[in-house]
Amino acid sequence: MLLPRLSSALGLLALSMGVFGQDDSDVKSIPLRTHSLVSPYLDTDMQSRWFDFGGDTIIRADQYIRLTSDRPSQQGWLFSRVPLTATNWEVEFEFKIHGQGNLHGDGMAIWVTKQRSTPGPVFGSTDRFEGLGIFFDTYKNNRPGVTFPYVMAMMGDGQTTYDQANDGKANELAGCSARGLRGASVPTKARMTYFQDKSFTLDLQYKREDDWQRCFEIPNLSIPSVAYLGFSAETGELSDNHDIIRVDAKNLYSTSGASGKSTRPEPVRGKSTVQQKKSGGWLWFFFKLIMFGGVCYGGFTGYKIYIKSRRSSRF
To answer: Is residue 7 domain-shared with residue 88, that is, in the same domain?
Structure first.
C-alpha cells in the first residue's frame, strides 16, 4: 500500500516541477485608460481628458455618446487625443444603431488612422485616410448579393478614395453580413484584436449575450505605428441614432515569447495598474512556492513511512 502512495507522491512532485518550469505563454492584458470610455464620459470641466468630439455629436452622461441623432444630414465624430501606440492591443466597445421607420442610413465607422477629428464624406470622417477603417454600413446603395447591414474593413494608403457608389466594394479587405445588428434586442458589441504584423480580427455580439461571432480575420496586417482611435457616423436623407455606450481598450503582451520575440507591455500612465501587475506576480510566485513545498513535504513524509515499515518488517 505504501509503494503506490510513494509513487503517486513522487509522480505528482515531478509533474509539479515540470509545470512550474514551463514558460507562461498566455496572453496577458493591461487596461489602456487613455483609450477607454465609460459613463459619465466627461470630466468636471465638461470635457473628456482622453477624447475629442465634434460635429453633431451629443453626450448624455448617464447613457451614451450619440454621434448622430435620427435626423437627416448629420455627421459626428469621436477621436482619441493620444495615438494608440501599443504593439498589440484589443478594443471592445458597446454601441447601438437604432431609429424609427423601415428605411434608415447611412452607418458608422471605427478608425485606427493617422488622421483624427477631420469631418468628411466617409461615414462622417475624411476620405483618403491612412490606416484602418471599419465600416458598419446600414444602407445598401449598389452591392447585389450582399445582405445589409454589412461590416467591412479597408486599409487606406492616404491616396485611395472610398468606393461610396458601390458600398466600398473596390476597397474591401474583409467583411461580413450582420443581419440583425441594427436594433438588436441584446447589447451590440464589437471586439478588435490586433497583433502587430501578424493578425487582425473582428468579432461581433448581436444575436445573444456572450455569443461572439467571428466577422473576419486579416493575416499580416500592418497598421501605422502612430494612429488614433476614432468613431464617426453619418446620416443622409435617411437617418438613425448611432450611439457609443462604452469603450474598453487593452494592451496585450506575452512574457513567454511564444509567438517569436517576447513582447513587453507598453508604458501605462498612472501607478495603480503597474502596482497591480507587480502584486499579481508576487502572489503567483508564492502560490507556486507553497504548492511546491506541499508536494515535497508529502513525498518526504511518504518516504519516511515507507522506510520505517521496511525496517519493522525485517523483525
So the answer is: no
